[in-house]
Amino acid sequence: MQQPHTQQIQTQQPIGIGLAGLGNVGAGVFKHLQSKRTLLRERLGLDLEVRKVAVRDRVRRAAEGFPEAILTERWQDLVEDPEVRIVVEVMGRKEESLALILESIARKKIVVTANKALLAEYGREIFEAATLHGVPVFYEAAVGGGIPIIKALREALVGNHIVSIHGIINGTSNYILTRMQEAGLSFPQALEEAQALGYAEPDPAADVNGWDAAHKAIILASLAYGFWIPADKIYVEGIESLTASDFRFARELGYGIKLLGIIKAASDTQGAAIEVRVHPTLVPEKHVLASVNGVFNAVAVKGNVVGDTLFYGRGAGQDPTSSAILSDIAEAAEALQYPRRNLGFMPHGLYGSCKPLDEILSEYFLQLCVEDRPGVIAQVAGILGELNVGISSIFQPEAEAEGATVPLVMMIHTASHAQMRMALDRIGALECVRKTPRMIRVEHFS
Ligand SMILES: NC(=O)c1ccc[n+]([C@@H]2O[C@H](COP(=O)([O-])OP(=O)(O)OC[C@H]3O[C@@H](n4cnc5c(N)ncnc54)[C@H](OP(=O)(O)O)[C@@H]3O)[C@@H](O)[C@H]2O)c1
Prior knowledge:
Helix content is about 40%, strand content about 25%. By secondary structure, it is α/β, with parallel strands linked by helices. Strands 7, 8, 9, 10, 11, 12, 13, 14, 15, 16 and 17 form an eleven-stranded mixed sheet that branches. Strands 3-2-1-4-5-6 form a six-stranded parallel sheet, with helices on both faces. The longest helix is centred in the last third of the chain and has 20 residues, at about 320-335. Bound molecules: NADP nicotinamide-adenine-dinucleotide phosphate.
């Protein structure tokens, strides 16, 4: 005898999907929507059908084997087709993607997007439109590729104040840092290797300057704290200036170096300030994030009810990203059956603002190039002492001396960015200090 839900499937019209973009991600979504159609139908009790695909060159795409009848060079065709109920935006553009998303929302089509750069910049506008029209927008693929971190924050951890999030959320930079750490490569050597292996784009700027990770951090922080965080309120530093000596000295002290997105809110009292930053970070070798290597991503979330959690997986690539998009499409299809209040982002007024950079506290690793003579350490320590900055350890690797100079490496107790800024200005101006001081933040996850 047939189950009731199977009968329902047979009588229901397929749910029409419009796919905008048939690049790396779009082609994967198209492929998996075909190959997983039966599985999804069994699991959801709903049939999903790609009705239209927006491409830039229809002839080329048809020649590649995509069904010509559903290809269009106008993304507007997706919006204008009443049978398209879910629009999947994977064009990765700015103006066109925003226009597609806003027009889709206005026509009550549910939107799925992987466009982290767009969400980071226009998240507020997009969710204002979503609220106005009562239309959900889903974006699981925008952060952490196949790792279900968005749904985890939105649903599984909804009963928690999020104390902190620490994320390795850019696979390209993590690959580069892993190779610098393990093989002693310089930054240019590791980047070249990543490009040769296809892990880095020919233009790697956003991956190595920290901004791809920053876009994801903005999305995670906005979701965790209920207001869209402006990009100019966060601190972003890339990995381009890291040197082999940073890794050597960090290792001597028991640390690895990772590009971390760090998001914190000290309390959940009304108006609490949050901090959002992306920068290279010394991570204790024993911490689980230190062993997240290569192109993998990981996000550690601490909630005040659940405690510590860790999400790990492939942060990019056609299949992991498609997996996240399929889950969004499934959720969108269900939302078409049962209207929902949470439209993908629930704004609220509990948390207030972003903490100014100068007030952010951290521990630090300092590397100086100093004259190899007595009295130098006293001068440096004197400045730090005057600014109330404490030194937790200090060492001078004599084996690395070059001519009349030698490195001086220090670990600094918790201090504010403002204190360190003043300290570095004064230390850098000392006659005995030969190069610009190098500072990397240290995280102990306490
Ligand atoms: N790649 C990943 O692993 C990954 C992971 C997470 C999130 N994402 C996000 O997913 C999105 C897509 O990334 P991707 O790697 O798939 O990029 P991609 O390979 O460059 O694909 C984008 C596709 O969109 C097409 N396109 C651009 N403008 C269009 C327009 N006006 N009309 C129709 N098609 C248009 C491009 O056509 P042409 O081929 O003619 O240029 C291209 O095929 C981006 O927002 C990205 O940030 C990607």
